[in-house]
């Protein structure tokens, strides 16, 4: 299976699962995030990152309400490990950092924390809560810092009921314009 077929297959098999206590499915959440990236005229790698940022949730069999049970599925790590076999750094690094981006934004912007949905606040504390000074500096120094923060903001907005987005194949089309892992 090539990487496009692999991703299509994952979404078709697992994409109808609930997105962590929100009112959208994983598929809808991914398409909404990718739509926001596309509307922002992002480069193809960041649109693909937006589409695939939660692919880690599709790779495990933990229940959808894991955070309510005190479980952090570490989906940003499992997603990163899966994606780095198929995609360049400009796709996989923002995915790896999108949870840290939430911790970052909550640390520097109290209004951001207040704006999060309840499931997102629950997972925030499971994911480590606010960053300390060293974590903040390391995050800001990362070359993919800005992309990760952009992705995070789309992630937070991509929870709308009944949003008619372009379909999965539309966004899979961007994958041919994105590089493979560096050797
Ligand atoms: Fe997400």
Characterise the protein shown here:
It is a single chain. With about 180 residues, the protein is mostly helical. The protein has a single domain (about 5-10, about 20-175), classed as Orthogonal Bundle (Hypothetical protein af1432). The protein contains ten helices and no strands. It has helices at about 5-15, 25-40, 45-50, 75-85, 90-110, 110-115, 120-125, 135-140, 145-155, 170. Helix 2 (about 25-40) packs antiparallel against helix 3, helix 2 (about 25-40) packs across helix 9 and helix 5 crosses helix 9 (about 145-155). The longest helix has 20 residues, at about 90-110. The radius of gyration is 15 Å and the shape is globular. The model has no long low-confidence stretch (mean pLDDT about 95). The structure holds fe (ii) ion. Fe (ii) ion (FE2) binds near residues 29, 53, 54 and 155.
Major beta sheet summary: none
Strand content: under 5%
Helix content: 55-70%
Looking at how many chains there are and whether they match, the oligomeric state comes to single chain
Total helix count?
A: 10
């Amino acid at each position: 299976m090539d990487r496009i077929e692999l991703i299509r297959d994952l979404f078709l098999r697992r994409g109808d699962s609930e997105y962590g206590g929100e009112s959208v499915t994983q598929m809808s959440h991914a398409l909404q995030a990718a739509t926001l990236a596309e509307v922002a005229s992002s480069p193809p790698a960041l649109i693909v990152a937006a589409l695939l940022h939660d692919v880690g949730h599709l790779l495990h069999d933990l229940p959808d309400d894991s955070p309510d049970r005190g479980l952090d599925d570490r989906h940003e790590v499992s997603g990163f490990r899966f994606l780095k076999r198929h995609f360049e750094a400009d796709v996989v690094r923002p995915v790896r950092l999108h949870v840290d981006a939430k911790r970052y934004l909550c640390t520097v912007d109290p209004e951001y924390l207040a704006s999060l949905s309840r499931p997102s606040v629950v997972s925030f504390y499971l994911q480590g809560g606010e960053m300390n000074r060293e974590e903040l500096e390391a995050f800001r120094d990362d070359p993919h810092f800005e992309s990760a923060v952009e992705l995070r903001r789309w992630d937070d907005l991509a929870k709308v009921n009944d949003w008619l987005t372009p379909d999965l194949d539309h966004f899979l089309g961007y994958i041919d314009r994105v590089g493979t892992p560096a050797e």
